[in-house]
Amino acid sequence: MQRRNTKQRKLVLDAVRQSYNHPTADEIYNAVRAQDDKISRGTVYRNLNLLADAGEILSIKTPGGSRFDRTIEPHAHIICTSCSRVIDVPLPFDAQLDAKASEQIGWNVTSHYTIFEGLCPNCR
Ligand SMILES: [Zn+2]
Ligand SMILES: [Zn+2]
């Protein structure tokens, strides 16, 4: 059982690492199913969350739901409001922003994320 768990987690991790396009959990599920037709949707979703919690992949909250990213360094994203495509936005990441926000409001700010919205070249 333990062996199977480890193998399933590896399949999910590999599927995310082979994706360039910030896949949804469903897209990962479909990719993993091609390797292991017995794996359940619940198992794939659970492993995605475990891998994100462990910092092996990035989970991005977008207006349409969670997307997954093989790039774990903090970076900005943009989502197309028409086709829901997500790509990286190469802007400098301001690591000081959490501290600045903490100072302003007296909270212990631990993270922030940037998601732009707009139309991709195919949709505009
Ligand atoms: Zn689009
Ligand atoms: Zn990204």
Provide keyphrases for this structure:
Arc Repressor Mutant, subunit A, 2 domains, binds zinc ion, two-stranded antiparallel ribbon, alpha+beta, Dna Ligase, domain 1, 124 residues
What would you say this structure looks like, in words?
With 124 residues, the protein is an alpha+beta fold. It folds into 2 domains: 2-69, Winged helix-like DNA-binding domain superfamily/Winged helix DNA-binding domain (Arc Repressor Mutant, subunit A, Orthogonal Bundle), CATH 1.10.10; 76-118, Ferric-uptake regulator, C-terminal dimerisarion domain (Dna Ligase, domain 1), CATH 3.30.1490.190. 38% of the residues lie in helices and 19% in strands. It has helices at residues 2-17, 25-33, 41-53, 97-105; strands at residues 58-62, 65-69, 76-80, 86-89, 115-118. The strands form 2 sheets. A 3-stranded mixed beta sheet has the order 4-3-5, with no helix packed on it. Helix 1 (2-17) packs across helix 2 (25-33). The longest helix has 16 residues, at 2-17. The radius of gyration is 17 Å and the shape is globular. The mean pLDDT is 94. The structure holds zinc ion (2 copies). One zinc ion binds next to loops. Residues 80, 82-83, 85, 120, 122-123 line the site of one zinc ion. Keywords: DNA-binding, Iron, Metal-binding, Repressor, Transcription, Transcription regulation, Zinc. Zn(2+) binds at residues 80, 83, 120, 123.
Number of strands: 5
Q: Give the SSE order as H and E letters.
A: HHHEEEEHE
The structural class is alpha+beta
Biggest sheet details: 3 strands, mixed
Annotated CATH topology of the largest domain: Arc Repressor Mutant, subunit A
Q: How many helices?
A: 4
| Ligand types | zinc ion
CATH architecture name of the largest domain: Orthogonal Bundle
Name the CATH homologous superfamily of the largest domain.
Winged helix-like DNA-binding domain superfamily/Winged helix DNA-binding domain
**Overall mean confidence score, pLDDT:** 94
In what order do the strands lie side by side in the largest sheet? Answer: 4-3-5
> What proportion of the residues form beta strands (DSSP E)?
15-25%
- What is the rounded distance between the termini? 49 Å
Q: Which spans have pLDDT < 50 for at least 5 consecutive residues?
A: none
The dominant shape is: globular
Helix content: 25-40%
- Compute the gyration radius: what is it? 17 Å
Count of discrete domains:
2
CATH secondary-structure class of the largest domain: Mainly Alpha
Keywords: DNA-binding, Iron, Metal-binding, Repressor, Transcription, Transcription regulation, Zinc
Binding site for Fe cation: 112
Family: Belongs to the Fur family.
Cofactor: Zn(2+); Mn(2+); Fe(2+)
